[in-house]
Amino acid sequence: MAEQRRDGRDARGDAQGAGERGELGGRGARDAVERAWDELVATARRTVADGLVVGTSGNVSVRVGGTVLVTPTGVPYDRLTPDDVVGVDLDGRRVLGSLLPTSELPMHLAIYRATDARAVVHTHAAHATAVSTLVPELPLIHYMAGALGGPVRVAPYATYGTPELAENMLRALADRTACLLQNHGTIAYGATLSQAYDRTAQLEWMSRVWLLSSAVPGLTPTLLSTQQVNEAGARLSTYGQRP
Question: pTM for this one?
């Protein structure tokens, strides 16, 4: 790890040089990268603490300008330091750090290229993954589906880390900010890491509610209509405090 950290410092020096050449926008951009990396690591650790991820499964990314910071593959989140920053451009070329990026990089980049996302969270949350094996779409058990754009679809299974999985995911995300990945997990995006994480947590919670209600013998859960969810979604778009 000491060698990796030295490499990370060297990469930061390279980033500083690039900033001076205008490639990363100077000191302000470097500061933004450092802040974003710290928040990314905190978010990744939160996925473990909240039970959405086991070990090194799942991954997190955040976009800073044309650079995507992403968790490295196979490294426990509690070992990550400021010197372990990993960054790629929108074509997947590594521009920061020495560690290899997550194997799910194709999914993250596909979202950034196709949407206005600034952050992406992918997990192997247990209840959501269970739902992904049972139905092609999460039944409308709660109006919070409206906060994700409507009924949450399940992307057909494909091997992890492949372009095919990224393509399946994009189709399931059409007009949505989250989807389930069949026999795999969840993915959600947002304008911030906090928003992407909250959408992930809401999806896992709704999946758990549906599984619990469906498990009661002799009873069938009441579901909402698409119209009811859309109406809730419209109200949720103005929910909370405004600047």
Answer: 0.88
